[in-house]
Design brief:
Elements lengths: L9 H4 L4 H13 L2 H8 L3 H15 L4 E4 L2 E4 L1 H24 L8 E6 L7 H12 L4 E6 L2 H10 L4 E6 L14 E9 L1 E5 L10 E2 L7 E4 L19 E5 L3 H9 L5 E3 L11 E7 L5 E8 L6 H20 L1
């Protein structure tokens, strides 16, 4: 059945439960039934039943099923937008009834791993000084998960890392609004006692044959390995946490790549150096959000993130 023209029986759809709406939003955000079930504490079959009930009420498919997960149809995007409004209103009502402040001063921020080392804490600290009534709730995640959360209405803002050719983070409509906060060169962290640490830069040819500390991403060139190498990298340690990677470097366990903004987070025993030769490896720090006007708290949070990013960029 085509989802270009959606005809929904209003009487049927009004019977959709709040639980089904929450499950639908979780599936849209997580990208798979399995991940949604885990996030909600449900069984996968329970998630499947809730999705079946909401699709039956809508009278049209809301999700396209693929081996890698699910993708919203045009009708699914429509239902997600409405479901998000309903769920946010219910949450605000519950907070008011319990005597807690409404969500007006709360901003939900997502960030990719390296942004949490310095940028996010500094921005939140500065915001607390200038606008103490604003509360920022944060979560860490990879770009696909953060983008899905923006689309699902679970995040107001998301800090994303972007590499050349700097494509949009997804192809959904409407396009996300993207604001580049900084752009800097990728660098390499080396043990301070290593011979290559004596200079002011490393030539790309000197990175051949090195041992690397990388993230767990399932890619041919995982995060943490210099992307311009023409060899299969030798990865000796895998770590998701950036501080763990840098401390492994300090212990002499290998090299890792770092964004320029992370240079100030290097522990003792680590030198972070630029790389000369080969293609330029620039990285952008991007603030993403859904199109439309920002709430006042979200706008203030965006300003604080920009100020913190510029301060770190200037310092490095």
């Amino acid at each position: 059945m085509s989802d270009h023209l959606v005809c929904v029986d209003v009487m049927d759809f009004t019977d959709v439960s709040v639980t089904a709406l929450r499950v639908f939003r979780a599936v849209a955000e997580q990208g798979t039934f399995t991940a949604a079930a885990a996030s909600l504490g449900y069984t996968q079959s329970a998630v499947s039943r809730q999705i079946a009930s909401i699709e039956q009420a809508a009278g049209v498919l809301l999700l396209e099923r693929h081996r890698s997960g699910v993708r919203l149809t045009a009708a699914g995007h429509l239902v997600l937008r409405r479901a998000t409004v309903v769920l946010e209103e219910l949450a605000a009502t519950a907070r008011e009834l319990s005597g807690l402040p409404t969500q007006g001063g709360v901003v939900r921020l997502g960030w990719f791993p390296s942004a949490g080392a310095l940028l996010v804490p500094r921005a939140i600290a500065a915001l607390r000084d200038t606008h103490p009534a604003i509360t920022v709730h944060t979560r860490e995640g990879g770009t696909p998960a953060l983008v899905r959360a923006l689309r699902a209405g679970s995040l107001d803002l998301a800090l994303l890392g972007s590499a050349p050719p700097f494509r949009p983070p997804d192809t959904e409509s409407p396009a996300l609004e993207l604001r580049t906060l900084t752009e800097s060169s990728l660098r390499v962290a080396v043990p301070a006692g290593h011979p290559l640490a004596r200079g002011d830069f490393i030539d790309v040819a000197e990175l051949a044959g090195r041992q690397w500390i990388a993230g767990p991403a399932a890619a041919d060139r995982p995060m943490g390995v210099w992307p311009g190498l023409e060899e299969r990298p030798e990865i000796v340690h895998t770590a998701r946490d950036w501080l763990a990677k840098l401390n492994l470097v300090a212990a002499g366990c290998g090299f890792t790549t770092v964004p320029g903004l992370l240079a100030a987070a290097a522990p003792p025993g680590v030198r972070i150096l630029p790389v000369h030769g080969g293609p330029l490896e620039h990285r952008r720090l991007v603030l993403a959000r859904l199109p439309g006007p920002l709430t006042e708290p979200a706008a203030r949070t965006a300003e604080a993130l920009l100020a913190a990013a510029m301060a770190l960029y200037t310092a490095n």
